[in-house]
Specification:
This protein is an alpha+beta fold and about 280 residues long. Helices cover about 20% and strands about 20% of the residues. It has 3 domains: about 70 residues, no CATH class; about 80 residues, Herpes Virus-1 (2-Layer Sandwich), CATH 3.30.40; about 60 residues, Rubrerythrin, domain 2 (Single Sheet). This is RING finger and CHY zinc finger domain-containing protein 1.
Length: about 280
C-alpha cells in the first residue's frame, strides 16, 4: 500500500514515534520537543505506531499489520520518515540531508555538506556547522532551515541572512567581515565623500583604522561618512584611536609613510598568495 498523505506540520508520514525518553507517541521529534520539557533522541527510537491500524511495532518503513507504507523516504539510522525530497544520509554529518546527493559534497574541515559549486570555492572554518547561528542562536547543523555560507566561512540560517540583508546589515555578526561583495557600494561611498568635503577645521585630519575585510591597519583621512581602507578599498573599517590633527609638513610625511606601508603590505600579500599557489 502506498504512503498516505498524513503526519504533522513538519513531516508527511503515517506513523508516530514512541519517544524513548518518556514513552509517549508523537508524530515527530519536533512535535515532542514543543510539548515536553526535554528533547527526544531520534536515534534511540525503537518503536512506531501505525496511524491507520494503531499497531505498535518496531521502527520500519512498512506496517507489518495493514501493509501501509509509512513514508516515501525512510532512514533506519535517523528514523526519519517523510515524503521524497531526494534525501540522503550523510555518514560524516551523522544525519539526513535534502539532496539530490550528487549536487552536494561533504567538506571534511567544515564538517558539513555544501553545494558542489562551493567545492574549492569557499573559506573553510573547522566544524563551522557545530556553532549556533549568530543571529537567532539556534542550532544550524541539524536545523531544517538551510545554511548560508558567508565569504568569511561562517554560517547563518538562510532566513536569518535574508532578514539581516533586508534590515541593512552587511557584516558577519561573528568576525565583522563583509557578508557579500560590496564593491559597488564602496564606489557609491567614494562619490558621496568626494561631494561632501569636511569643514576647514578637519582638513588634514587623519585617524588610525583597522579594516574588517583585509585586517590591515592604516592611517587615513577622517570623514564622518566613513574611512576607506588604504589597502583593499573597503569602508568596512573601525576607528582605532582618536583624531590626529597634523600640520602641513607633518601631513606630507605621514602620507609618505602611509604609501610605504601600503607597498610593504602589498608585497606581503603577494608573497602569501605565491606560497599558497605552490602548496
Amino acid at each position: 500500500m502506498s504512503a498516505a498523505e498524513s503526519g504533522c506540520e513538519h513531516y508527511v508520514r503515517s506513523c508516530s514515534l514512541k519517544a524513548p525518553c518518556c514513552e509517549k507517541f508523537y508524530v515527530c521529534r519536533l512535535c515532542h520537543d514543543a510539548k515536553e520539557n526535554h528533547q527526544m533522541d531520534r536515534f534511540l527510537v525503537k518503536e512506531v505506531k501505525c496511524s491507520i491500524c494503531n499497531t505498535v511495532q518496531k521502527a520500519q518503513q512498512m506496517c507489518e499489520e495493514c501493509g501501509v507504507k509509512f513514508s516515501e523516504y525512510y532512514c533506519a539510522i535517523c528514523h526519519l520518515f517523510d515524503k521524497d525530497k531526494k534525501q540522503y544520509h550523510c555518514q560524516p554529518c551523522g544525519i539526513c540531508r535534502i539532496g539530490p546527493k550528487e549536487k552536494y559534497f561533504h567538506c571534511i574541515k567544515c564538517n558539513l555538506c555544501l553545494a558542489c559549486d562551493l567545492q574549492g570555492n569557499h573559506k573553510c572554518v573547522e566544524n563551522v556547522s557545530r556553532q549556533n547561528c549568530p543571529v537567532c542562536m539556534e542550532d544550524i547543523h541539524t536545523s531544517r532551515i538551510g545554511a548560508h555560507v558567508l565569504p568569511c566561512g561562517h554560517l547563518l540560517h538562510k532566513t536569518c541572512f535574508n532578514e539581516m540583508y533586508k534590515t541593512g546589515g552587511y557584516r558577519c555578526p561573528l568576525c565583522m567581515h563583509s557578508a557579500w561583495n560590496m564593491e559597488r557600494y564602496w564606489e557609491e561611498m567614494d562619490k558621496e565623500i568626494s561631494q561632501t568635503p569636511m569643514p576647514s577645521e578637519y582638513q588634514g585630519t587623519t585617524v588610525k583604522i583597522m579594516c574588517n575585510d583585509c585586517q590591515s591597519h592604516s592611517t587615513v583621512p577622517f570623514h564622518v561618512l566613513g574611512m576607506k581602507c588604504s589597502s583593499c578599498g573597503s569602508y568596512n573599517t573601525s576607528q582605532d584611536g582618536g583624531l590626529i590633527h597634523l600640520e602641513q609638513g607633518q601631513q606630507q610625511e605621514a602620507e609618505e609613510q602611509e604609501e610605504e606601508q601600503q607597498q610593504q603590505e602589498q608585497q606581503q600579500r603577494e608573497g602569501e598568495q605565491e606560497e599558497q599557489m605552490e602548496e
